[in-house]
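Run: sequence + FE2/S2 (inorganic) cluster -> complex structure.
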Amino acid sequence: MSAANAERLVYMANQIAYFFVSQPGDKAALQIADHLNAFWDPAMRRAIGAHLEAGGEGLLPSTAQAVRLLQQATPKTVERALHAAGEPSPGHDPGDDAG
Amino acid sequence: MGVIHEIDHGTPASRDERRVTLTIDGQQVSVPAGTSIMRAATALGTTVPRLCATDSLQAFGSCRLCLVEIEGRAGTPASCTTPVAEGMVVVTQNPRLAKLRKGVMELYISDHPLDCLTCAANGDCELQDMAGAVGLREVRYGYDGDNHLCDVKDESNPYFTYDPSKCIACSRCVRACDEVQGTFALTIAGRGFESRVAASQAEPFLGSECVSCGACVQACPTATLIEKKVIEVGQPEHSEITTCAYCGVGCTFKAEMRGEEVVRMVPFKDGKANRGHSCVKGRFAWGYATHRERILNPMIRSSTAEPWREVSWEEAIGYAASEFKRIQQKYGRHSVGGITSSRCTNEETFLVQKLVRTAFANNNVDTCARVCHSPTGYGLKTAFGTSAGTQDFDSVEHVDVALIIGANPTDGHPVFASRLKQRLREGAKLIVVDPRRIDMVRTPHIEADFHLPLRPGTNVAVLSAMAHVVVTEGLVNEAFVRERCDWSEFQDWAAFVSDPRHSPETLEPLTGVPAADLRGAARLYATGGNAAIYYGLGVTEHSQGSTTVMAIANLAMATGNLGRPGVGVNPLRGQNNVQGACDMGSFPHELSGYRHVADDAAREMFEAVWGVDIDHEPGLRIPNMLDAAVEGAFKGIYIQGEDILQSDPNTKHVAAGLAAMECVVVQDLFLNETAVHAHVFLPGSTFLEKNGTFTNAERRIQRVRKVMAPRNGYEDWEITQLLSNALGYPSTYTHPSQIMDEIAALTPTFAGVSFTALDEHGSIQWPCNAISPAGTPVMHMDGFARGRGKFVVTEYVPTDEKTGPRFPLLLTTGRILSQYNVGAQTRRTDNVLWHEEDLLEIHPHDAEHRGIRDGDWVKLHSRAGATTLRAQITDRVAPGVVYTTFHHPATQANVVTTEFSDWATNCPEYKVTAVEVSISNGPTEWQERYEAAAARSRLVVRAEPAE
Ligand code: SF4
Ligand code: SF4
Ligand code: SF4
Ligand code: FES
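>> structure
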C-alpha cells in the first residue's frame, strides 16, 4: 500500500474517531471498530491494521485502540459488545423494521 | 386507448369536515361546507358552463357564464363563487339562464378569431366547448367590431407561445402563476376591451420573471397560451400516466402522445407529490430523448486512445463479460465492481446490485447517493432507526413554521417550493439557514422571518446554538421527550448543548450569524406551532454531514416536532430515484431494505432465492474504488447511468482512478465525461422507453410507464440482464413487474408492493406491509422505528478545508432551476436558454478587491486544481463566499473541489472549498487539455451498414 493511501485511511479513521470520542461514556474504541467493520471493506481494514503494526503513525490513541480491536475480535464480537454496552450499531442494525 | 381526461370540478375542494345538503336540478346532494355550487353540481354529473373557473384555482367570478338560479334569492348568482348552504334549491339550466349564457358567449365570440379549423387547440378548447354547451348558433354583433387579430404573438419562450388575439381575459393564467406557481409574473394590463395578459413589465415571456413552469399554459382555456409542440404536431390521441425522471419531488404526468411521439407532458392532478403542478424540467425538457447526440449502438475499444467501434449488442456484451472474467481471474474476485443509478428505476437498480453480488460475487457496489444523501441515511438511522424522511409532501399544508437549511427549493425542488409558498402565503413562518440569500428569503408576497447567513461549514455550530437556546430557555417539549426518547441520552445532550460555549453569542464570530437572529429563529422554531425542517445537500455534503443530520433530528425531537402531519425531518432528495437506489441495496454494506450483509438471517434469505453465497463483508464505496484503482487493486467497473467524472469531487483523482482500470463499462444515453475513460459503451434508454418504478423523497413508489419503444433496442434492465447472463449468472425476467415481485419477497418494507397494487393505489409510500397495506404517509406516529429516539451529542469539528492567505475565499456549489445535475439531459434541451454557462457568484467587495467586473473571465483555484468561468457580481453571497453551479462540463467545477468527505459515509465535502479568484483571460491548461482529449476519445467509427 502506498504512503498516500495509508495517509488517507488514517485521516478517515481519525475523522470517525473524532465523532465517537465526543460521545458520552467510554465506548469510543468499540464504536469506531464497529463503524470500520460495518463500512470498510476487509482490505481497507487489513491495510490500516498493517499500518498500526508498522508503528501507527498519525493514528489517534482511540483510533489505534479500535484498530487493535479489529485485529483481536471478529466483527460479530465487537457488535455484540457494543449492544451489550447499550449502544446501537447504525451500520449493522437493520433499518427496515419501521412501522 | 384515448387521452385521459380528468374531471374539472370548477373550484378547489373544501377541507371543511361539516357536510351540507342541498338540491340541484331536483336532485339532493351532500358536500363539505364551503364547496361552491359549481363543484357540488359535478358530484351529480352536471357541468355548469364556465370559462374563468377551473379547480386548480380559487373562483374568480368574472366571465358570468356559470350563472344559476337559487330559490328565494334574487338575480342569477355565479355558481363558482357562491358556496352551498343547507337546504338550498338550485337550478342550473332553464330558458332564462340559457339566454343569458348565450348573450355572454356572443360577446366573447364576436372578438375571437374564428379560425377554429386551423387552430392548434381545435378539439381541446374550452371556448369552443362552451359555445357548444350554451347552444350558440349566431352572433348578433357580427365579427366586424374591434378585435385583437393584429396583436403580435410572443414566441420568445422556447416551449410555448402567447397569441393575444385569442385571449378572453379570463385571468386563469394570472391566477395560475400566482396561486399555483407563486411567481406572480403575469398581470392583466389595461381595462375593458384593452385588457391583455402581460408578463412582468410587459416584457417578452423569456426575459420576464417567468420560470416557464407552464401552469399558465395548462390553465388557459383557449389557444392563447399553448405548447409549441402541440402547434407543431397536433392534438394528442392517447396518454399514459408516468413519473418525472428529474428531481426527487417525483411529479406524475400524463404523457400525451401521438403514436410514439410525445406531444406534451401534463402534470397529473391525482399525482400525490405534485397535485397537478410541475416545473420547466419535467413539463418541457424531455427533448433529450430524441437528441442527435444520443448514442443508439453499442461500442467498444481496447484502449481509450482508440476511436470507438460500433458493434452488435452480442459483441459488446460478450466483450465486457470476457474482460470482467479475465480481470477477476488475474487480479482476484474483488478487483471489479459496479455503480447503480439514481436515475434508473428501482427494478434496474436492484438488478445491477444483484449482478455485482451474484455474477461478480463481491459487494463492490455503490450509488451516486454516496455523493449526496448518504449522511441522511446514517444520521436518521442513528436517531430514529430508519433512514428515510418522515413526512409526505401534503404535510406542508399543516406546517406553521418551515425551517429550510442547506436547500434551495425554488431551484432544486420547484414543485415542493410552490406548495410551500402557498402555505407561507397563508401565514406560515419561514426560517432560512443558508450562506446565500436564496430566492425563498424574499419572493413575491413572501419574506423569511429569519435568514441566518452562516459561514459554509458551520452547520453543526449553528444547530448546536439553536439547541442551546431551546434547552436553556426552557423550550423543550419535555412530555414528548420523556414519552418517546431515551431520557438519559437526552440529559447528556441537554447538558452538552447548554454549555456556554454553544451559546449563539459565543459562536457568532465563528458562524457569522448574529446571535439575536439565531435566538429569534430558535424560539420561533420551538414555539411557533407545527415546525418542519426541510434540508438538502447543503447539510449533507460536508465533512460533518452525518453529524448535521443528527443535530437536525435532535432539534426536532427536543421540540416534539415528529410523528404527525405538519412537522418532521424532511430530506429533499436530489435525483428522481435516489431514495429508491438506497432502498434497493445499492450500498456496498447493505442488501435491499437496509440490512447489513453481515446479517446472517437477511443474507440467507437472499442466498436462498438467488442460489449463491453472498459475501458477508462490506465492499468498496465509490471513493474507495477509485483509491484502490490508483493503487492497482481495482481494475474493472460497470457504471449504469452515472457520470462520476463530472459529478464526483476532485476530478483529477477520479480521472486517475478510471484511467488505471482495464475495463470501464458505461451504460448511458450520451457519451458522458466518464465515457472518455470507457472501453465499452452500452446505450441506455430514457424513462419514456421503459416500465418500472421510481421512489421519490417522500418514500412514494410510483410507476414509470413505457410510451415508446427504446430507440437503443433495450430497456436498461434488459441490458443488465444480458450482461449477467454473459457473466454466467442466469437472469430470465420478462417484465420489470417480476423484479418488483422479487424485491417485495426479499424486502419487508416492500412486502405489499407490486405493479398491480401500484396500479390500484396510484402510488404507495413504504413501509407497505401487513400492518400498513396502503403504505405509510407519516412515519413514527406511535413511536420511533428503533424504539426510543436517540439524542446524539454533536460536537462541532471544523473542516480541515480552511481558508488561509493562499486561498482566502470559501467556494460553495449548487444548482439552478432550468438545469439538472451534470446537465447531460437538460443541456440537450432548450433549457440552455436560461443557463448557457456556469457563473461564479462573488460579492461586490471581494470582486472590487480583485479588480473583477461583472462578466469578466476569472480563474477559480483551490489546492486541488483550477478552472475558469465568468464572474457574476452579487450580494446574494456574503463577503468571503463564492458560489457556482456544476451543470456544464466545460467549467469542470469539480476540478477545484477536494477529496475531503463526511466522516461516517465518505459523502464528499462539495459545499466548502478554500479558493482564490483572480482575473483570467481564458480556459486553464487543464480545461484545454481535457477538451482536446475528450474530443479525441469521442471519435466513433461507424459500423458498415449491412448490405
Ligand atoms: S410559465 Fe409559470 S412562471 Fe411563467 S408565467 Fe406561466 S405560470 Fe408564471
Ligand atoms: S391567456 Fe388564456 S388564461 Fe390567460 S387570460 Fe387569456 S385566455 Fe385566459
Ligand atoms: S424536475 Fe422535479 S419538480 Fe420538476 S417536474 Fe420533475 S419531479 Fe417535478
Ligand atoms: S366560471 Fe363562474 S364566473 Fe366564470
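>> summary
Residues 3-84 of chain A form one domain. Chain A has five helices and no strands.
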